[in-house]
Amino acid sequence: MTTTAPIISVTGGDDPGPTSLAGSRRPGEMVVMLLLRVAAFVSVAVTVGIVIALVGPALNFFQQVPVSDFLFGTTWRPNFAPTEYGALPLVAGTLMTTLVGMIVAIPFGLGAAMYLSEYASPRVRRVLKPVLELLAGIPSVVYGFFALQFITPTLLRAWLGVEVGFTNALAAGIVLGVMIIPTIASLSEDAMSAVPDALRQGSLAMGANRMQTTLRVVFPAAISGIAAAIVLGISRGVGETMIVALAAGSQPNLSPDVREGMQTMTGYIANTAGGENIVGSVSYNTLFAVGLLLFMITLVINMISIVLVRRIREVY
């Protein structure tokens, strides 16, 4: 005969159930929360401070130069009479160098990401990915001298036979693309590696080969992260300074020919910021007007990327 021992409550009364830790505070938790809030506040405060620093002198500039002339004018000549302040040549130079850079960076960056994510062994990935990301740590001024000393005279003129000037948007864009490759490759590889293996296994089980699985399954599944990487690369190219200041030239040029020298917005700021401009003068305030325009372009690019990523994002 089997007997069951009575259950005796050692606490007495009703069983309170499992202990809730929701209201308890661990040592140091308040300090960590305070530090996180301070970090978030500092990020927002720095952004607001940048806007305030740009808007004041820029408004003084637009009191003397109409906004329409600045945005749609085709001649940029702020230091020579008669002065003209049409920013389109600077915007065109920025867009041309960025376009060449993305033509270089997107294929090579996505190719490197697909290889690291889908084809490389873990051992090869551990070696190649840090080496690839090392390119992002090279100072941009080094890239600029590389464009002047190798890309223009050796690659373009000697090997490819392209007639280019000493400074040109093509060389600047090529080196800019090389600098952006690690950004696109690293972020895209992270997005592709996050795709569940079940999708790959299902594709292979249906008879698809490895390349078809990569292009038709993994790539579409990671498209939101890849799109974010590309947009981040574009923002990086638009905001780059030293490469374009050294290799693209300092002559504003509204031309579609990338073999010619061009001046970008960041290049103008870098070349002019060290000059002898009287504080409060129109030539001094042009720096802030161009900086504000550059800020707005970058902001629009980032807003487009946020909308794009939210629309095509897939969660697994």
What's the topology here?
Layout: H1 29-64, H2 67-72, E1 76-77, E2 84-85, H3 88-119, H4 122-134, H5 140-159, H6 169-193, H7 197-205, H8 210-221, H9 223-239, H10 242-247, H11 265-273, H12 282-312
Antiparallel strand pairs: 1-2
Helix pairs in contact: 1-12, 3-6, 3-9, 4-6, 5-6, 6-9, 7-8, 9-12, 11-12
Features:
316 residues, single chain, mainly alpha, 68% helix
Short structural description:
By secondary structure, the chain is mainly α. It has helices at residues 29-64, 67-72, 88-119, 122-134, 140-159, 169-193, 197-205, 210-221, 223-239, 242-247, 265-273, 282-312; strands spanning 76-77, 84-85.
Describe the structure.
The chain is mostly helical and 316 residues long. The protein has one domain: MetI-like (MetI-like fold, Orthogonal Bundle), CATH 1.10.3720. It is 68% helix and 1% strand. The protein has twelve helices and two strands; from the N terminus they run H-H-E-E-H-H-H-H-H-H-H-H-H-H. Strands 1-2 form a two-stranded antiparallel ribbon. It is globular. The chain starts with 28 loop residues before the first helix and ends with a helix. Mean pLDDT is 88; it is low at 7-12.
